[in-house]
Design a protein that fits this description.
Blueprint (H helix, E strand, L loop, with lengths): L8 H11 L4 H8 L3 H9 L6 H11 L3 H5 L4 H6 L3 H12 L14 H16 L3 H21 L3 H21 L2 H17 L3 H17 L3 H15 L6 H20 L3 H18 L12 H14 L3 H8 L9 H16 L4 H14 L1 H5 L2 H10 L8 H10 L2
Helix pairs in contact: 1-3, 2-3, 2-4, 7-9, 8-9, 8-10, 9-10, 10-11, 11-12, 12-13, 12-14, 13-14, 14-15, 14-16, 15-16, 16-17, 16-18, 17-18, 18-19, 18-21, 19-21
Amino acid sequence: MPPVTPEHTGARVKRLRTLRHLTQQGLADRAHVSVSLVSKVEQGTAPATPAFVGAVARALSVPVTDITGQPYLDELRTDQFDALIQPIRESLDVYDLGPEPGVSPRGQAAIAAAADQLCATVRDTNIKQAAAVLPGLVYEATTAAHLDPSDAMWRTLASLYRSAYDVATKLGYVDLASVALDRLAWAAERASDAVLGTLRQYLRGLAYLRAAQYETGQRLVTVGLRTVEQAEAGRPRDVVTGQLHLGAAILAARDGDSDGMAGHLGEADRIAARTGPAERTLWVSFGPANVTLHRVAALVEMGRYPEAVEASRAAALDTLPASRIGHHHAEVARAQLWSGKPEDAYRTLRLARSVAPQQIRYSPVVRQTMEDLTSHYRSVPDSFSAYAQWLGM
């Protein structure tokens, strides 16, 4: 069995609990979980589910990323991602300063095409390529928007801010993702685009999901559903409305609300039947296939692992981007593990890596599943050790 790093998830829980001068019982009382579960997670013999991590983070008044260990700086430095973050940060900082000195922007159509290609690059999980290109495009689009403040140019800039959010989120930079969302709202307002504004509410809801602030996330989705009604009827409005319901379903599942989860999935199903596959509309990958994937994810969040594994058999992945497929495989692997099928789980994790390696390397779900898998193997395959080392574990 590969050695478990001293800073696995349970070790981080123990360290943070000790810093707060809490016993295991004290943490259990604050987090509304059993003391037995706290003990087992700290020992690495029980899963630190996202719901558990969220409850502990709230109880300790720390960000969820303090427990998951994000961003994974050693791996980011090894992959030379860390040097790409500061230029993105700097490009987001000049949003309201007017044209960028020395930048001669192309026409709106050319910049829009480049922004669209960048979205596709992120969906293909070529994160390093996207991160390298992003700052220059943001400077160019910012300058163009200030020189020719048309609705179309502001929408293009909003798209680039959305890509910045995606890159930051996938690499674990929560603070930068939050800045990108604020910039998205700023550009969407100037474009007078209610759909883009609603998309920002959806992404904020996901951010609060990751931060384990489920009530706030649900409120954001509710506001988003009201806001999107103001948009012009059509496919973009339907897609964003459906995606809001999918986000609400996951939030409800994480909060233990099975009725709410089922209701939102049902609404998304009805909208998807009308829109059909819409993977490129606003790059949210909405459609019948994505509804199925969210059903699987919601069941995993509810701890209904065998149902999630069974539901995954209906997933049609052919039309979905690599980023969504990779995340789905990570969710299925977690469900397989806790359904008593560790070998299946490991095979699925390998599949996830083959589909979206840059994304999977920085996935906290994958790392937690690998930690949990170590206690299920009597004899660890060599490839398992290699996979763990690739993750930086």
